[in-house]
Amino acid sequence: MRIAILSTGDELTTGRTLDTNANYIADQLLAIGYEVTTMMTVGDYPERIIAAWRNLFSQADVIISTGGIGPTADDLTTETVAKVAGVELVHDQATAERIRAMFQSMGRTMPENNLKQALFPAGATILRNDLGTAPGFRIEIATEHGPRIGFIMPGVPREMKHIMAEEVLPWLRSKRPDTHEYRSHTFQTFGISESALDETVAGVLDPETTRLAFRAAFPQISVRVSVHGPPEVVEGQLADAAAKIRESLGEYCYGEGDTDMESEVGRRLTEAGATIAFAESCTGGLIGHRLTNVPGSSAYVLGGVVAYKNEVKHAVLNVANNTLEKHGAVSREVVEEMAQGVRTLTGATYGLATSGIAGPGGGLPDKPVGTVCIALARDGATFSHQYQLWGNREWVKVLTSQVALDWVRRATLGHDPTQSSVLRK
Amino acid sequence: MRIAILSTGDELTTGRTLDTNANYIADQLLAIGYEVTTMMTVGDYPERIIAAWRNLFSQADVIISTGGIGPTADDLTTETVAKVAGVELVHDQATAERIRAMFQSMGRTMPENNLKQALFPAGATILRNDLGTAPGFRIEIATEHGPRIGFIMPGVPREMKHIMAEEVLPWLRSKRPDTHEYRSHTFQTFGISESALDETVAGVLDPETTRLAFRAAFPQISVRVSVHGPPEVVEGQLADAAAKIRESLGEYCYGEGDTDMESEVGRRLTEAGATIAFAESCTGGLIGHRLTNVPGSSAYVLGGVVAYKNEVKHAVLNVANNTLEKHGAVSREVVEEMAQGVRTLTGATYGLATSGIAGPGGGLPDKPVGTVCIALARDGATFSHQYQLWGNREWVKVLTSQVALDWVRRATLGHDPTQSSVLRK
Questions:
Q1: Do A68 and A75 form a contact (C-beta atoms < 8 A)?
Q2: B132, B159, B174: which is the final residue of a domain?
Q3: In DSSP terms, which residues pair with B120 in a beta bridge?
Q4: To pair with B30 at 20 to 30 A between CA atoms, which of A106, A315, B130, B407?
Q5: Do A288 and B292 touch (CB under 8 A)?
Q6: Across the beta sheet with A125-127, what order do the strands follow?
Q7: What is the DSSP string of B91-136?
Q8: What is the spatial distance between Cα A216 and Cα B15, in angstroms, rounded to a whole number?
Q9: Cβ contacts (< 8 Å) between B269 and chain A: which residues?
Q10: Are residues A213 and A358 located together in one domain of the fold?
Q11: d(CA B173, nearest CA chain A) in Å
């Protein structure tokens, strides 16, 4: 079954809005074994939308469309699809009432415009949208190329994802010639390049029944294993495949499922009943920001100090002026005192510190841009290391924060924090 | 002249990589008066790429293609375009030598694979790419629909943007029937919704010669004015149009050109010879992170304290336990003491503080999620306000940081910081 994706909207063709819907849909389809043949985008012009549909009929069996089913004058998808299908528009009273009730529950009156969202091409199957006013629909269209299926969904990403999960993906899964089911499991990795990752997992799994998908979202790369098989064995297949990948990834994998480094750190700190405080120089507050992005982080984050100026390192964190003068702010000696200082100041289990040169300015012959020192202090030991990182200012800050957080994660697991995998190329 | 965009690559059709190139190109084209008719994406399959080109020949006069001109086996664009154009591939020695020299300058030997990047369809015009190994090319193709122009560029965004600026956009500008030139100017706004912004600028400019483009990139919305006219008057046209928009935007505009709130704050602090320290609770370090994202910020950022726990507010910032007990951490009284405390601690000109409930947990009947207090302390005065913000955890943090930074900006301009425009709906 060939699948095409159609995105509709002037905001897309004028470059005003980045189309993330098509990318999301393609990724979701891949997880259930489909690769998209074509993606197309047109603006809010009836003749262009009609041409796009007819075009895609010649290339795909299923067309998944987003956009153009809102209440305003430039929302043309529904009437255009009806035209292409050669059918009339029909008013669905239940939908109209649901939309009206939605507005009422927000203390508002439904604008009459929204009634057009209760019109559907005759014969269409309405797809429930619990998150918005516009229900989507599925329609079978007889074309010169044969019967075609159209899925019409809203362009609002949250609503589209909901309808994909509730209606579209289950339908597509049910149409596979086999009775196979599809399962996926994701590993989050850090510290290894995409090509080295590729080599690491190459040949580990059987390409007949499994598929690996990599997604690089700096600073992490996710590896998704997808398997398909008869319902009674597919869970076991997934567990086996996941175990093989888990073993081959080793320490490069820091978490599984939809997670990130700060969430994993939070989980580990919570399990250990430990707390953390941070002393940041070059990262400027990014570590604190990331840690506090995790809901519930107030259970283990005490706070921290952004000691951007040396005077603040001394006055607030008690870094000795002697140490600053002798070794410079970007040194293992200073960053160890910063980590110990914030730990003493707050009473945290772990004190984490960073000091470095994010660039573009500030580099020195012996300490070029990208020189970064990290320290972690706990009861009885202080660890530190000097890295030579790379990239622009934002890149250096983000990479430093990721390594630093990985240090904390490793420490909570009883590993040597300084052996964070970014040290290995 | 109708323009279509073609993006090529399996990484796009599998959803692994988000296509930002098409969006960028569409936006750049809009600024010089062109709206894209169609955007299409296909994977690395020769027959699908050929079909896409032939398809687009029927809809557009110019096809701008990205992707598929790398050195590996799945880079198929060049040979496919030659096939579609019905011409042979020709080796360009100058290009081959330039690629070889590039590798040598990095201390490496050019893999033989890369030689395929020196092959071009006979008759193509090579487009210089100073940032990568693959030069693009422009080619005229005779089709059943008439003569067509193809621009073939690398998929690497940085390289594509370079070739767009150096080669593609100038060529397209030169092909306009008039001798008009195109100029743009951008305003960054904050504190007004997109629809209210739309209403504010409606009718201010003449749609015949000017165009307005809005781009929402939370928490800011940019407004770009584009004008076109004969070369001798176009600069004056731009200045006039910009003046009208500037006036209608009023205080909602906080900066002009490619800027952001933290850069504007940095500029104002530098001009005033002032320094800043921050005391963050709910924002967790985000304000420090944003301020230090600006190169050169060490000139005016002293540092700050992330006082996530009340004990840290008291121990490090000297917030009185009495105040914490009486009013609670999320109160104007506490946030004023935080701002004064960090100012005293560091000696900064401005002390900025935030305390609030980002959610999803932590809400109280009288202080629901989204309740946020901001304070700004300077010599002789301390300002504070309690807001009812909205959205999820990330949204509340980002919006709070934006309002807080806007407070600083307003203060450096001598305005009342508490009148930041987000107060008005």
A1: yes
A2: B174
A3: B90
A4: B130
A5: no
A6: A125-127, A136-143, A146-153, A62-66, A3-8, A36-42, B36-42, B3-8, B62-66, B146-153, B136-143, B125-127
A7: E-HHHHHHHHHHHHHTT-PPPGGGGGGGEEETTPEEEP-TTSS--E
A8: 11
A9: none
A10: no
A11: 17
Rounded to whole angstroms, what are the CA distances from B285 to A284, A398, B116, B356, B409?
8, 14, 49, 13, 19
- Report the gap between the CA of B289 and the closest CA in chain A (Å): 5
- Tokens 């409930």 label which residue? B357
Chain B residues lying within 8 Å of A285, measured CB to CB = 278, 280, 284-292, 304, 306
Among B151, B140, B134, B149, CA closest to B25: B151
Residues A165 and A189 in one domain: no
The structure tokens listed for B331 are: 């109160």
Supply the CATH number for residue A372's domain: 3.90.950.20
DSSP for residue A168: I
Would the pLDDT of A293 be above 70? yes
Predicted local confidence at residue A422, as pLDDT: 65
Identity of residue B178: D
Determine the residue among A27, A309, A310 to mutate to test chain B binding: the one whose Cβ has the most chain B Cβ atoms within 10 Å: A309
Q: What is the pLDDT of residues A9-48, one digit of tens each?
A: 999 999 989 999 999 999 999 888 898 999 999 999 999 9
Contact A312 B303 (CB under 8 A): yes
Total domain count, chain B: 3
In chain A, the residue whose alpha carbon lies closest to the alpha carbon of B37 is A42
Domain residue limits at B102: 3-174
Model confidence at B107, in pLDDT bands (50, 70, 90)?
confident
Q: Which of A2, A10, A12, A23 would you mutate first to test chain B, the one with the most B CBs within 10 A? A: A23
The string of pLDDT tens digits covering residues B228-241 is 889 899 999 999 99
Ordered strands of the B181-189 beta sheet? B210-217, B220-229, B181-189, B253-256
* Interface probe, candidates A50, A215, A312, chain B, greatest B C-beta count within 10 A: A312
Q: Judge: A35–B14 Cβ closer than 8 Å, yes or no.
A: yes
Provide the shortest C-alpha distance from residue B93 to chain A (in Å): 30
What ipTM does the predicted assembly reach? 0.85
State how far residue B108 is from chain A, nearest Cα, in angstroms. Answer: 18
B402: confidence class by pLDDT, cuts 50, 70, 90: very high
Over residues B158-192, the pLDDT tens digits come to 999 999 999 999 999 888 877 788 889 999 999 88
